Amino acid sequence: MSSRILSVEDINVYYGAIHAIKDVSFQVDEGEIVALIGANGAGKSTTLKTLSGLLRSQTGSIEFLGENIMHVPADKLVARGLAHVPEGRRVFAQMTVEENLQMGAYTRPASEIEPGLERVYTHFPRLQERRRQVAGTLSGGEQQMLAMGRALMSSPKLLMLDEPSMGLAPILIEQIFQIVKELHEAGTTILLVEQNAQMALSIASRAYVMETGNITITGTGDELLHNDEVRKAYLGG
Predict the structure, then answer these.
(1) Measured between alpha carbons, how far is residue 203 from residues 13, 125, 156 in Å?
(2) Stated pTM of the model
């Protein structure tokens, strides 16, 4: 039986007077890919920022590995095994690929850096080819790979990906999602926020639909792929 990695109960988040997240609850179990899908402005990215300590909920609880992390600083959460790949990638543009990856291991013992690099280069051979290249000169797809690889360097128990396909050509989107599947098959538990609902649901164990700050539909990835309401709103059918 899988163990619960993340349990979110009745969180509410505000941007000033704007109620961005409304009584949101969901769970992620070990070994799953859980997807959050929805339109722009639905609250998906705000949810991830709240989980990673960048924003604070006014209510409820967030438990990670059985501990309440509602008031734990973001940098401490990385050390506990929660890694967040933000929307827009945000690599260190003036540093090399390998320096970016090494920065991702800042919470880990020095003895884990080389094995971590080997693991990342196995999943992302392109990064090994570019390891001496300045990150700001990489393509969008390569920067996305670097952002994901940098997060993996922290040896996360839960990897949160925010819009990994954003701004990428279709062939690169397929490549990124193939890598997400490979990471999952290698044992990484993933919480995926993604506007490309078709791709997200095709690899998700379970999924949640967010609309205007609320979770409105839940089910397995396959159930939502065949849900008439979801198909009409997000899958063009």
Answers:
(1) 29, 22, 20
(2) 0.91
